[in-house]
Amino acid sequence: MYNVVRTAQLRAAGLTSPLVKEAQSCCLTKLSFGVYTIVRRCAEPRHARIRTLITDDEWIQRNDDRRQGSLADDPEFAVLMGKIRISSYPHFRAEDVLIGVSSAVFHNLPLYRPHLNRIVVAHPSARHRGPLLTRVARTVPVGDTVTIGKLILTSPARAALELIPQMGESAALAALDTVVRQAVFGSDNAADAAARFGYPPDIADRSQQVIDTILRPTAERMTTHRSRAIRLVDQVSALSESYAESRGRHNFLILRIEGFEPQVVVWDGDRFVARVDFMHREAKVIVLIDGVSKYVDHGFALMKKETEQQNRLTALGYTVIRVNFQEVLDLEAFATKLFGQCPALRSFVTR
Fold first, then answer.
1. Where is the DUF559 domain (predicted)?
2. Is the pTM of this model over 0.85?
């Protein structure tokens, strides 16, 4: 899978160390010490024996398709490479448990530009920091671990909470929102279907059950950042439909603006107008958050539809504030747009 090979395999195939080093600028990518992935079926005669070790032609094709770009241009590919690097690491100990970002990527939790060049594991007694792996002395309860393939890692809820010190509370909340949505609806596809066709009337009760039975007990078992984890669990919502919406909701919390509700349906009499990301009923303010690839994915038709909806909402007396992805990530830019377009929101800031 992914043409992962080890130094011993390359030597057994007759390749010398200088030849392996040379191939790293051609058809081999180094994953960790003594582990490589074959990414290209090159025509170099000296690399013919490397070609005999190729078992995954789809991986070769995928690398060929993106050869002109960098990992920064293809975040999904960068995450995949991170997963391959972690899963192929050859020096895990028997009691190592992947934690934080190193665990979250395998649960497909939303992460914005995660740092995957370093693997982080917990071990009951050992500490270590090497070029690629950090091992912290920490015992993870068995109930907070899962096994995926040959890897032992923290559960989705635990991994999300472990993001607090690694990526911050905003990133952790976005991951926790996804954990709740996955638990409530059973899968990301089912959650997406609910977002398109409408949420069930008992969504609040089902979400609270997941929070009370899964998230809060997990937070209470944390040995580091426990109070922050418990506090953050109280802010989780199954109605955040994207990473950007979760970050936007956390911005409201940081700015202490009370009164915004997620996923509110707006009617004009008996005519449906729109379901909006956030509404402040008292201030008559609607906040719409655009994800990182929203219009790239859905094109001009969606842009036209949303413009028409915004015009109708404005006609109904709402102040509509549209926030882009970069503004969501920049708290000061977010606050400037909100208070700049609707100064009355300052009346709802708690002290």
1. 276-329
2. yes
